[in-house]
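Need the bound structure for adenosine-5'-diphosphate, inputs here:
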Amino acid sequence: MINFQQVSKTYPGGHRALEKVNFHIKPGELAFLTGHSGAGKSTLLKLISLMERPSAGNVFINGVDLNKVNSRQIPYARRDIGIIFQNHRLLERHTVFDNVALPLIIEGTHHNQIAKRVHGALDKVGLIDKVKCHPSMLSGGEQQRVGIARAIVNSPPILLADEPTGNLDPELSMEILRLFEDFNKHGTTVLIATHDLGLVARMKYRSLTLKDGRMLQDPLAQEVL
Ligand code: ADP
Ligand code: ADP
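Answer from helper R.:
Posting the output first, comments after.
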């Protein structure tokens, strides 16, 4: 599903963020991506979501070599991927409904499908009663759940999360992770970048670790080579 082969990323200015990274995540897997701040976690997620391009190596998503996806094809390739950010990046002047509907509007989904799917997504994260609210009226945990609803509203097979619990207390963090677990149980492949090792330890899932842009030994990484 997600396959990195000898992937390196050097940013303009010469900073090497990733160095010959290899790993493979199977369809239906849930995995954590850990590592210190600056280890390269966000960069790795950005390569999967085509927000950045590798300097060397290949990223395969669903068997498609992303090096072969040209800039015009990027919006289509991204449909397979839902992304959740730490600071949720909600549009403050729009309602919860409009925020969650955004990916569908961008995709050109027919309007009579939109309401149904937005309500479905909000139902999954337990926020159906907040549909008319503006983000500022919601708690931090609720805002994060709106971000999750927006990420899953078009049922992407892959869900990426970049420090999704960064601003939340431990109890809310577990709640958010249980949501990811739930999506995963329904078949979504999930990759969660976090530096919260306590949280990772409480869940029994595979954990990939980056250190200074290199992937530390992972028993399953060998499979790729
Ligand atoms: P993490 O998510 O693990 O904190 P990042 O992937 O954000 O790590 O960053 C990895 C390294 O790449 C850091 O040293 C960071 O400063 C650098 N970096 C990230 N984005 C850029 C950029 N757009 N331009 C230059 N350097 C960057
Ligand atoms: P899965 O979706 O089962 O996890 P991958 O996404 O890793 O599998 O790979 C699916 C397909 O992608 C492979 O069957 C192959 O066609 C192509 N692929 C993966 N790695 C390579 C590679 N190194 N070179 C060429 N094609 C590859």
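Comments: DSSP finds seven helices and ten strands in the chain. Helices lie at 41-48, 74-78, 96-107, 111-124, 140-152, 170-185, 197-202.
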